[in-house]
Each structure stands twice: as C-alpha cells, then as structure tokens.
C-alpha cells in the first residue's frame, strides 16, 4: 500500500512530499492543475520572511524572533495562535539550506524601495523557479506525481484517513497530507461569504484573483461540511491586496499590485479619502488595502500621486492615467471634479512637511483632516499627476482547518493520527487577518515540512503495525 498521499501541488504540498520521501516513505502527489499551471499560488511568490539573529548569506543585519512576532501580531490584530506563529518563525530561520538542497537558489540582498533586504530572502527566478526546482527534486527522489487529478472527497473513519477519490478512482494510503489551497477562485463561495451590501451589490463579484484559477476549495468544503473537521478563521478574511482594476481575472501575480499608496492619497468612487495611507511601511501594510477597497462603493478605489513619487515605488505593469492638473485627472478617472478637488485641497492644506524619508517612519504628517495621514504626507502639487483605479485582488483565503504543532487535522478537538494539513488550508491558524510580505511562504514551508515528516512517521508506524499483525 502507498505510504503517503499528498493532495495539492504548491509549495506546502511539495515540501511535504519531499520530507516524507526523505523519511523513507513512498509518496504520491496529486495536483489538480495541468503541468503548465502546476504550483498553485506558489508560482507567483517571490520570497520567504526569515528570522535571523545576525547577517546570514542573503539576509542583512538581524531580524530576531521577537521583532518578527511583533510584526505578525500587529498585522493580525492579535488574531493568531502564538505557539504556532512562533513555531513558523523559528522554522523560517533554518529552512534555507534544506531548500537549497532541493535546487532552490536565492538572490543577493535587495535594496531600494522594497525595504525587505533585512527580513526577506528572495528566490532567484521567483516562485516559478522554486516550484520547478521542487518538482525536479521530487521526481528524482521517486515521488510519483499526477496532474489533472482533482480530489473531491475523502474516506475518513473515526478521524483516520482511509482513501481519497479523484474522478472514478479511489486511492488508499496509510497517511495523507492536505495542501490543496483555499477557496479564492470559487466565486460562489466568495459570494456566500461576503453576501450582499445595502445597495444590493455582491462585493465578491468585483474581486479579482491574483493567483491560480484552480483553488476552488472543494476539498476544504468537503472536510468542513461532510466530515465536520474543526475549523479556524473567518471566511471573509484573506490575503487581499489593492491591485490595478485592469488586471486579469486570474494569475495576474505581483505585477498587478499598486505600490504607490503610501506616497499619495487613495479616494473612493465618491472622491473621498477613507484610510490613513501612511500608517506603516508598505511591505507590512500593503495587504490591508484590498479589504479596505472591498468595503468601498463598487469595490473601487483610486491611488493618486504626483511627479514627486515617480521612481520611489515598483512600477506596475499598466501605466497610470496621466494628467497635467488635478481637475483634469479627476475628469479622466470619471470622478466628481468638485468633490475630488475639495478632498485634495483639504489634504494638501493639512500636510505638515518635515524630513521626508520613505525608508523610515518620518515626521511628514497631516493635521486637521480625517482620516489623518501619519507618515510620508506631502502635498500633491507637482505635475504630472497620476491615478490608478484599484480593485480588491485576493491571493488566498484564511478559513481553514484547525491544527496543532504536528500539523494534524482535528475532529471534535482530537487530532487525527494520520491526516495532516499544510499551506493555505491551515494558514488561518497563524493569520486571522492581515498579512506581511513573505509570511505565507513561511507558513507553507514550515507546516509542509512538519506535515510530511509526521505523515511519513504515521505511515511507517501503520506499516509496522500491519506487518506485526
């Protein structure tokens, strides 16, 4: 009998498959996508947030455990399991050598506008290269891989995994790792979670999906509805980013993100500001803006900058709407000119200019205007002016399966002896809300490796038991 079945094909699934195989287990990995789309959202990633107490290979200075934890605590607002979060943080400090052993390469420290050379290790070639490296290594080690193999249901008896069904085929295994992603590409489930607003709109209809079209959440829903697995998280919470409204429905990836929010102002369709654009550094706070935009009329916002911001942020793939004056920009964006100018004039008059420094929490702020802008507040007064229409872009959802530090799925508070989960399907244990750059890969790598190791041990134990009997 097969030892370990891994369901999923992204970073967490691959880490699990590799660890299980290294532990001596026979492993079959089922990826729902075809080969050209393998890897789920991992193919769109770029980096891993890493704890380190001193300069290490591609990481500068230090990023100690407590600072990492405080960053995570801040963005989640306390909606996180500290024990599992710290487990993830510590694991992030010791996984790079293992990743290299499976063909992953890291690029030299970055500098400039991203400000993450200290906290994040970037993959050479991005997530696509990482996924390809892991698949090559898995194949070399003897992991069996099948594509176009979506799993829609499991056989589970008394909390113990028995078999999985893909199409008309039933696959038995001594243990199983679930790493099939969230439900972000399931429009019906998103509609159900977000409901209708007071205007009769379905906000989810205006969401774009930054990543894979294959994360339908079929297996997650099956586990929750049919097997009543213990859940964690809120169905409306997700890694949701403000992206260019012209982005494709799926797989737009990093290039669709609009990174100039902190350098200007953001207004809604009514031409009014609605949140502090300078709350914190962009790599820590960029992921709140998708949800903020989702709460605006028509799930639309507009990021407005002037010429002073150009060159200080990663340019998106689409050029912004350009104008020689603010009234002209309002007209081009289809915003009410009078309200727009009142908003911008109020903001400009409220700016208290100190020493502008986008690499630090500077003293440029507003006074006498709501919402305040607490850092990097400078008047928008230098032509040309640019505007970017924004829509919410979902990367992955946070509703998932509750786990312990062995990555075991729980039923009625009891951990399964042979069913484990990793990646997006359990990220809500660490991410109740919010996001900070690179932490998704940290969670997937940490719990993928744990799940693979535990699954191999469970399978070997089961095999010994069967042989003895």
Describe the structure.
With 469 residues, the protein is α/β, with parallel strands linked by helices. The chain has 2 domains: 270 residues, FAD/NAD(P)-binding domain, CATH 3.50.50.60; 154 residues, Flavocytochrome C3, Chain A, domain 1, CATH 3.90.700. It is 29% helix and 19% strand. It has 12 helices and 21 strands. It has a 6-stranded mixed sheet, covered by helices on one side. Helix 1 packs parallel to helix 5 and helix 10 packs across helix 11. The protein is globular, with a radius of gyration of 23 Å. It comes from Polaromonas eurypsychrophila. This is Tricarballylate dehydrogenase. Its cofactor is FAD.
